[in-house]
Write a structure and sequence with these properties.
With 321 residues, this protein is mainly alpha-helical. 55% of the residues lie in helices and 4% in strands. The radius of gyration is 21 Å and the shape is flat.
Length: 321
């Protein structure tokens, strides 16, 4: 698999790229690991200056010139297990952010849930966020103290309060209309979400969704990493596939041509599932559901203005799990 970074790429590797471009005098923006228009412009300027193809895409050749014959970095997510990669992908859809910020997405009480946090937007209202935070406190108290400092005891006290008091606390640290957390709480929670230790806890608590996704793959005789990502996103965004929709899907699958290759059949099934599940979603979110699910089925696409390539960005391929 060829490695490259371009508009829409995110992560520590992009941070290194931005730092290299800044040192070389071509990048003036912030080092945020987000390959946006400013980074692309800097890359093109660097490529022109070095008489490389000025396409704004950083492949092995551009990387070696920028970092003096150093081999291009392989995205670190490629070394992670599939459950982590699936969670990162759905977290990116949910938050619009790449790694690690897809694990640090946070929103306030716009939906009556107090605070929603993490790749799956666990929340106080449904009681799904409290266990993750309490486990982080139990296993990594020093890390949490180093993030929240003098507000550490406030956080602990809030988590040990009854639900009504916890919800009152959550609403007290955010804007009452915009439902954005006040600083420094917003920044502290984001710092927590970027910690590898808390990311691992998120993966653990998302395991029930991952196992359900594997079961859904089995129900439709799907075998690929990409199908697992599709079904995981169904569990995260939609919860389930009803019996009626399952019947419709299975009938559509029977109509697929028998002349298709194994891979073509897999993609055909995933497209059917993507469209059928989207068709019964809330009309307000229907096309969002469709774009997310077809992005999984096709291995890429644009969701919320972000250009995704599942293999290049998340190591999620049309290969056997």
């Amino acid at each position: 698999m060829s490695i490259y970074y371009k508009l829409g790429s995110r992560g520590d590797e992009v941070k290194k790229l931005q730092e290299g471009l800044k040192t070389a005098g071509f990048y003036k923006g912030i080092i945020d690991g987000d390959f946006g228009g400013g980074t692309e412009s800097a890359v093109k300027a660097f490529q022109k200056a070095k008489k490389l193809t000025a396409d704004g895409i950083v492949g092995p050749d551009t990387w070696k010139v920028l970092f003096v014959k150093e081999e291009i970095l392989k995205p670190s997510i490629m070394t992670k297990p599939l459950n982590y990669r699936c969670l990162a992908l759905s977290g990116s859809y949910e938050t619009g952010k790449g790694i690690p910020d897809c694990f640090a997405g946070i929103s306030g009480d716009f939906d009556g849930q107090g605070i929603s946090f993490g790749a799956c937007q666990w929340n106080f209202g449904q009681g799904s966020l409290q266990p993750l935070l309490k486990e982080m406190l139990e296993k990594h108290e020093i890390i949490v103290k180093d993030i929240f400092h003098e507000r550490f005891e406030i956080l602990v006290s809030a988590l040990n309060s009854d639900k009504e008091e916890l919800m009152d606390f959550a609403r007290s640290i955010q804007h009452p209309i915009k439902h954005v957390l006040n600083e420094p709480w917003q920044g502290m929670f984001k710092a927590l979400g970027r910690c590898e230790e808390f990311q691992n806890i998120q993966v653990k608590y998302a395991d029930v969704l991952y196992k359900s996704a594997l079961k859904l793959c089995s129900d439709y005789n799907l075998w690929s990493e990409r199908a697992t990502a599709l079904m995981f996103d169904v569990k995260v965004q939609n919860g389930s596939i009803s019996k009626l929709v399952k019947t419709q899907i299975l009938l559509d699958i029977k109509r697929l041509s028998t002349n298709l290759s194994k891979e073509e059949t897999e993609v055909g099934k995933m497209k059917i599932i993507a469209n059928r599940r989207a068709d019964v979603a809330n009309p307000k979110w229907r096309e969002d559901v469709r774009k997310r699910k077809l992005c999984c089925a096709n291995g890429g696409g644009i969701v919320h203005g972000v250009d995704y390539n599942l293999e290049k960005q998340f190591g999620i391929r049309l290969t056997q799990i």
